[in-house]
Design brief:
Layout (H helix, E strand, L loop, with lengths): L10 H32 L5 H30 L12 H31 L29 H33 L3 H7 L1
The structure holds protoporphyrin IX containing FE.
Protoporphyrin IX containing FE binds next to helix 1, helix 2, helix 3 and helix 4.
Length: about 190
């Protein structure tokens, strides 16, 4: 069944969940590779064509993640969500809710801050979506001395993965705890419905 019910996640939610997870798994190493290639280029021994290809892949995948997260969020708001499994204590419910809200917030802030970092960049650097190399700027290009420059948004973008790593670890540990210690099927219902 496509839609969620009060007991089960529907196919749309489950597909979006695992598709976004897989795309983030690709996006993180792509980000680090891109920054390394850019630093090597700036240091005079890199390949500018490689920087552009990695940037194109990173931008495109990041925009797709943003679109899918917005779809996932609107689908969630317009559909019933299954109850959290079993008799959880009040603090456990609270931690679960906070973790889920934080994950959504990060998944929106992550691509937006990367987009802003590239928009504010004070050189001539394309913003790609697939072959389109002229995506509009999210924020104005920084002028010399402006505090709202590429470094600021780049720092926010970097902080996202540091905070995200902690929240993701919490999220994955909770899923495994539910599945293998409490045995309440929380993980398998996100897989099989
Ligand atoms: C959920 C989506 C995204 C994830 C998970 C992600 C992840 C990353 C990671 C891990 C890095 C390396 C950070 C570091 O060196 O510490 C990075 C760098 C970067 N990303 Fe993303 N990114 C996303 C979306 C985007 C988008 C949509 C854009 C632009 C349209 C973008 C532009 C950049 C830029 C410009 C950098 C270099 C920042 C700097 O070093 O100042 N990112 N990204």
């Amino acid at each position: 069944m496509l839609r969620n019910t009060p007991e089960h996640w529907g196919l749309i939610t489950r597909s979006l969940h695992w598709l976004i997870a897989a795309m983030i798994l690709v996006q993180l190493p792509l980000g680090f590779l891109m920054v390394d290639a850019y630093d090597a280029w700036q240091a005079g021994h890199g390949d500018p064509a490689l920087v552009m290809r990695l940037s194109q892949a990173h931008n495109t995948n990041g925009f797709l993640i943003l679109i899918l997260v917005m779809l996932r969020l609107s689908w969630r708001l317009g559909n019933p969500s299954p109850e959290l499994p079993g008799a959880l204590l009040a603090w456990q419910r609270f931690v679960a809710r906070v973790t889920h809200i934080a994950l959504y917030a990060l998944l929106i802030l992550f691509p937006l801050s990367g987009w802003a970092a590239l928009s504010a960049y004070d050189g001539d650097f394309p913003i790609y979506f697939f072959a389109w190399d002229n995506v509009f700027r999210l924020v104005p290009q920084a002028t010399p001395g402006s505090p709202f420059n590429s470094d600021l948004y780049g720092e926010i973008h970097e902080t996202c993965w540091k905070i995200g790593a902690v929240i993701l670890l919490l999220h994955i540990s909770a899923a495994l705890w539910h599945e293998y210690i409490r045995r309440d099927g929380a993980l398998s219902r996100m897989w099989r419905g």
